[in-house]
């Protein structure tokens, strides 16, 4: 894979024109874009499709419900938005993940596309050990991350979203073919914002990340195309 194909740009806006501008600006320099609940709530799956018509899409809606409902949501999401990557919450449990995996394959086969990577979210990186304890999980987050990643793998999921600092433990436990999708990427250690557990793109790839999710360092840059090009050129050199 060309290293730049590993970059997915997180477009966190509600605005159709802004999303279109960003997708068009970065298209040549990255592997795809990520659209999530913020954009989807306003513009729906058809709006998502409009933005991602000629660029690979990570549809980040993190489904979590009873198996039958999630299967239905996955089916329509795959059919309408034709993503390259789609995701669910691993904490929805084995039956829910099995249903999502099956619905994903079924829908992709029906419309004749390569099945999207079905990715599970383990523990959100905004949740720390104290938050986990408050919801009855009295052990360090890495234990829960590893447990949920192994469950996701057992259910047939293709990989997980993880923080840069979980790459090592997940690669060790889940093996080489399991995709690790990594947000919290910052081109410089000097950038200070809400991402606490971060890593540079080069370091995350060296550590074993398959895909990098990069938002504001590109979307908030004065020139998003130039920022995307700089980051992807550094991965290649
Ligand atoms: O702007 P920034 O590079 O921080 O964007 C990261 C993207 O990845 C955002 O869309 C954020 O919601 C998402 N994300 C994350 N941490 C997770 C899961 C998703 O930052 N654990």
List keywords for this structure.
237 residues, eight-stranded parallel β-barrel, TIM Barrel, binds cytidine-5'-monophosphate, alpha/beta, 10 helices, 47% helix, 8 strands, single chain
Write up this protein.
- This is Orotidine 5'-phosphate decarboxylase.
- It comes from Candidatus Endolissoclinum faulkneri L2.
- InterPro entries: Aldolase_TIM, OMPdecase, OMPdecase_AS, OMPdeCOase_dom, RibuloseP-bd_barrel.
- It is an enzyme of class 4 (lyase).
- The protein contains ten helices and eight strands.
- By secondary structure, the protein is of the alpha/beta class.
- It has a single domain (3-236), classed as Aldolase class I (TIM Barrel).
- Strands 1-2-3-4-5-6-7-8 form an eight-stranded parallel beta barrel, surrounded by six helices.
- Helix 1 crosses helix 2 (37-51), helix 3 (67-81) runs parallel beside helix 4 (94-111) and helix 6 (141-154) runs parallel beside helix 7.
- The longest helix has 18 residues, at 94-111.
- Residues 10, 12, 36, 124-125, 161, 183-184, 195, 213-216 line the site of cytidine-5'-monophosphate.
Q: How is this fold's topology laid out?
A:
Elements (H helix, E strand, L loop, with lengths): L6 E4 L5 H11 L5 E5 H15 L5 E7 L3 H15 L3 E5 L4 H18 L5 E5 L7 H6 L6 H14 L4 E3 L5 H8 L4 E4 L18 H7 L3 E4 L1 H4 L4 H13 L1
Parallel strand pairs: 1-2, 1-8, 2-3, 3-4, 4-5, 5-6, 6-7, 7-8
Helix pairs in contact: 1-2, 3-4, 6-7
The protein binds cytidine-5'-monophosphate (C5P).
Pathway: Pyrimidine metabolism; UMP biosynthesis via de novo pathway; UMP from orotate: step 2/2
InterPro entries: Aldolase_TIM (IPR013785), OMPdecase (IPR014732), OMPdecase_AS (IPR018089), OMPdeCOase_dom (IPR001754), RibuloseP-bd_barrel (IPR011060)
Catalytic activity: orotidine 5'-phosphate + H(+) = UMP + CO2
């Amino acid at each position: 894979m060309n290293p730049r194909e590993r970059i997915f740009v997180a477009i966190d806006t509600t605005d159709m024109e802004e999303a279109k501008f960003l997708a068009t600006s970065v298209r040549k320099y990255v592997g795809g874009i990520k659209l999530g609940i913020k954009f989807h709530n306003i513009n729906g799956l058809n709006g998502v499709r409009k933005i991602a018509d000629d660029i690979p899409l990570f549809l980040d809606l993190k489904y979590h419900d009873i198996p039958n409902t999630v299967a239905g949501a996955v089916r329509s999401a795959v059919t309408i938005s034709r993503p390259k990557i789609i995701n669910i919450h691993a904490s929805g449990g084995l039956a829910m993940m099995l249903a999502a995996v099956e619905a994903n394959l079924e829908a992709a086969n029906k419309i004749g596309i390569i099945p999207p990577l079905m990715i599970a979210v383990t523990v959100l990186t905004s949740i720390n050990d104290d938050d986990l304890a408050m919801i009855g999980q009295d052990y360090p987050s890495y234990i829960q991350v590893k447990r949920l990643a192994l469950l996701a793998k057992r259910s047939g999921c293709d990989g997980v979203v993880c923080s840069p600092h979980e790459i090592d433990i997940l690669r060790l436990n889940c093996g080489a073919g399991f995709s690790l999708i990594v947000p919290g990427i910052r081109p410089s250690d000097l950038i200070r914002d809400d991402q606490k557990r971060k890593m540079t793109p080069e370091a995350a790839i060296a550590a074993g990340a398959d895909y990098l999710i990069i938002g504001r360092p590109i979307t908030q840059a004065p020139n998003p195309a130039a920022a995307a090009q700089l980051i992807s050129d550094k991965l290649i050199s």
